[in-house]
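Handout, section B. The chain below has 532 residues.
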Amino acid sequence: MADSKRSFPLWAANLFVFSLLFCAVMAYFLWQIHQAKEDFQSHVKEHAVLVAEVIQLSARGGVLSKQAAEEILDAFLGNTARFVHYLDKVEPFTVEELTAFSQEAGLAGIGIDRGSGDSVEGPPEWLPDHDPARPPGAGLQHLPKERLYLYSWSDEEGLGRVMVGMSDAQVRTIQEHLGLDNVIRTLARIPRIGYVRVITPPEAGSRTRETSSVTMKQDAGLRVAEARVPMDGKEIAVALDAGYLDRAIGRLWRDFFVFSAALASLGIMLSLILYRRQVAHLAQVQGFDRQLALTRENAALGRSAAAIAHEVRNPLNVLSMGLQRLLIEGRELSDDHRHLVDLMLDGVKRANASVEGLLRYARPQKPSKKEMRLDRLVEDMLHLYGRRCEESGIAVSQRITYRKSIPGDPGLLGQVAENLLKNAIEAQPDGGAIHVEVSAGKDQGVFLKVTNRGFSLGLEKAERILEPYFTTKADGTGLGLTISRRIVEAHGGRLTVRVSEPGTVEISVWLPAAGAGKGTTAGNSEEGGASQ
């Protein structure tokens, strides 16, 4: 018993193990959340680098497309200028002819300088703020303010010059489609990309960061992850929607709480089961201890019973016979002396009854079973004590519904019924009520219940009335109910005490009928009957 108290409780060990499992699960889910954030940031960096490469390729494509367009314009306008010079040599152009030719060729205008101040252009003043004199330099030039490409060609002698102009609208359209702004707008429309920005360092000569970085921030009410990638002295800022990261983390936390709740419920349930099993084991050990103590006590009583019978009972018999003879032959005794002898005889009878009860308690109960009617035995006992109940002012009620034979010893069971009825009567010296019931119980058993209102002890002392030598009567031995319980147990039944309400006690006897089980079955049936 002491070892079981000092041992570590199984339910506490189970809770400790489940606490360790909970910590491990918590660590695993935190690692998963950290890993999800790392994967998301890596994903953002990859997208940012990809967007930066797209922008770089777009910028290079824009430059190359402009160069290709200008090379085409250079060849086209150069050929056109030489062709115009040839035609003008054959027959000089007028203003109207040049205007019509330029419109048919899709040109902004044509200007011819034949030298010696002789020049013509069409349409007139097609080049704003132009100088009709020979422009500086030759070849293709771009005039952004005028949104014009101007090609100047001189003949071999350098005496004449032809200037051909063409609008830069188509080149600007190409650049707008391949330009940085259009690429950024197109990339920003990709799902889960919040924005793409080109950031220029605020100070001249300031150095941009050499590696990409990711920052979580709020933009227009949305949580985004912004990655910045260095590119050609600038930084490309790419923001990706972080909502799906939050949703992924939310799912992880939800899974964590669901799994933790299941783990906690399982741990508590198993701990409760282990706790109940341990309590049941301790109760079983305590029951074994009590049974062992009772066995040792019975053995000691059995050894002392023979000595008591020889050393106490025989002298008591001699003393009783002597006192009786003294009363018969002592004619000269006074009334006081006769009263004293009567008191002595009563004391001898009580002592002899105590010795007799002790011998019955110490003697093994071996019932001689045969078919008997418990209902008739109880009715006979009620008839026997009916007059005494009337004299004591005790109302007796009965409810007998079981009228079948059961295997039992009529003599021993008669002692049980008599003890229960006598105790109920003696517990109510000033009158009261007794209810006797014989009814069928569960598991093929029968119940005998005696209820009286003379119980003066507290609820915690109810079970003690079944202990040996426990009594509330001045002249009682405290062995009546103990002997009754041993008789019932010898029949394979059980005797229990239940306080249904303050001042009212119910003593139940469960006995197996024909074919009923014993041991555990008896216990279960008794519990079922006690609840009736």
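Note. The radius of gyration is 60 Å. Compare this with the example in section A.
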